[in-house]
Amino acid sequence: MSGLLGGEYLTQEIKPMTIEMKAERTYRSADERIQDLQTKIAGIKSREERKKLRADPVVREVTVAVKALGKALTAAQDDAARKTIEEARQSLAALVPARSPQAAPSDAAAPQVKREKRSKGAAA
Predict the structure, then answer these.
(1) Fewer CB in a 10 Å sphere around the end CB: N or C, the chain?
(2) Which domain holds residue 63?
(3) Is 92 inside a domain boundary?
């Protein structure tokens, strides 16, 4: 028997680290690190601005309406209904960029795909 159950321990040969095994490390200059930090700061500021805009009730409700119209557009079978829904969606989406510097909610995120739930009999 091998392993812990048989009382024997598996041994592994330990090899010393050689020069060719060591990875090359490149250090960034101070200017590169400053530039990276400024990029992070700009990202944080833009996220904070978007957060403030999402708190605006008009933007929030228009975003919900545009998403609902998008779902209705995918469910619509009639061409006339599709055209009407698309026109309404575009006119509402035009309100959001007017109030915020970000893109329209219909262009901002890709549609999410819902995963099917696992059945109880499915193996992991």
Answers:
(1) C
(2) 30-104
(3) yes
Place of tokens 């090359």: 24
95 within 8 A of 62, measured Cβ to Cβ: yes
| Residue 58 amino acid letter | V
How far apart are alpha carbons 101 and 52 in whole angstroms? 12
Positions of the chain with pLDDT lower than 50, given as ranges: 1-2, 101-111, 124
* Distance from C-alpha of 83 to C-alpha of 78, rounded to nearest angstrom: 9
- Is residue 99 included in any domain, yes or no? yes
Number of domains present in the structure of the chain: 1
Cα pseudo-dihedral 19, 24, 29, 35, rounded to 10: -160
C-alpha to C-alpha distance for 58 and 32, rounded to whole angstroms: 41
